[in-house]
Amino acid sequence: MPFLVFASHLLPGQLGPKRQGIPFKRFLFVVFLISPNMGFIITKNNKISGVKLNNENEIGADNVVCNADPPAFYEKMLSKSNENSMLFNWKKNRMEYSMGLFVYYFGTKKIYENVEHHTIKFGNKYKEHLDDIFDKKKLNNDISYYLHRPTATDKTMAPEGNDCFYVLVPVPNNQSKINWETEGEKMKNLVIEKMEKDLMPDLKNNIVEDFYLTPDYFEKELNTKFGSGFSIQPKFTQSAYFRFHNKSEIYDGLYFVCLLYTSDAADDMQCVDLGGRRI
Questions:
Q1: Which residues touch 73 (CB under 8 Å, ≥6 apart)?
Q2: Cα–Cα distance, 61 to 76 (Å, whole number)
Q3: CA distances from residue 141 to 69, 105, 128, 144, 191 in whole angstroms, order as listed
Q4: Span of 14-23, 243-252, 269-278 with lowest mean pLDDT
Q5: Overall pTM > 0.85
């Protein structure tokens, strides 16, 4: 879902209902908004004040909780008249972004019993592959991939006598300017070729249904900046406090709950071990 916004507003009221003898003088008004209906977020003096819809209607809001990728949200969902602080703009502009993802979904008329639920296969030149993804931002035929076969543990995921999978391949994000309209089919064929050689004999002739997603899908449909699969990179200078905050640093009443605002590496740095439990 590209943008899901939870907007809340405290409305003035009469004495109102009572709970355990305590009168409520204000009521909580909640609205869920999905991006096709959204125009932009309205702010006043760096405080959230409402949401403007594409039909020009406005909804007052004291708080906005958003599940979108923060970099894209700050660029696309705030009024162009908003001026962020120089420090925040510097932070936003210096961010480095994670890899893109090529995700290929397919079903087969053959059951590949030898394939486990999770499989990771590394290319012969793993470091060079990473250099191509993050530094040179170009495709590499010596791919590594993750293969998911849910039918290994749940046979109902595919029709009887069939199997289903998806394979995830790290690729450069859209800073690379790769034309996925031409490269997508080439990548699909490369992935099939590699899996036939590594794990799944005669795969090409057994595929009955398939489709794939490229970084273009992540950028255009899911609104991730540069089509990155995991938002900003989880390196030290972009971890924990140095990432975008759940509670906006610059707008009072703006909160993020999207998984992309954090990462496994950032989680490790924000957690402490308490009695053997990580919190």
A1: 3, 66, 223, 256
A2: 19
A3: 30, 19, 11, 9, 9
A4: 269-278
A5: no
